[in-house]
């Protein structure tokens, strides 16, 4: 009689069970071994091998018939402890492993989907950025065109104003020339010839003319000062009104552009936490 020792684990027990079943199928199990007329040899003189799972009594009997040799130490443990519980744990571990694998597959699939989505979004962002660059370049070109047009219009109006100023200066010079010319005529008037009465009358005429001219020039200068002052005040008021309207226009544009950016404000990205 001999003992075949298997691994002290659930796997070892399953292997022992498989071997035990094989002996049962071959009709060389315990029941066959216990028969009085069991076959001891096979045809050809080969010894017949019997086998079965050992019980406590089998182990005691084995040690009893092997006195003088080292006793085979053994420990009786429950089937539930050695087989059922480990197999259950193995099943749970396999299920957990399967779950982890499936989760890994799903995670990888989601990662691929997310990566694909990110690639599409990134491509869209690149296209949008290119479009924005194009739009900004066009807007800059338009802005430059508007500036050139405004400069051209400003130059046109400044040229008109300059022409008006030059024409007015020409009129002033002509006005001054006429004053000097008439004053020279009065000074060149012959007041020394003729009768005494005629000389007196001509002198009085020249004096009245010179007096009236001086007085008229004084009035002209006073009225001109008032006119220039009123003109400058109107220019200041006009520039103030223009600046005020320009500020209001810029504020209106700022509000409209801010509203446009708010309308097209990108959504906040939030990563999904679902498993």
TrEMBL record:
Gene3D superfamilies: XS domain. Pfam families: XS. The keyword Electron transport does not apply. It comes from the Eukaryota. Residues 136-188, 217-248 form a coiled coil. GO terms for biological process: defense response to virus; regulatory ncRNA-mediated gene silencing. Keywords: Coiled coil. Residues 1-60 form the XS domain. InterPro entries: SGS3, XS_domain, XS_domain_sf. This is XS domain-containing protein. It comes from Triticum urartu (Red wild einkorn).
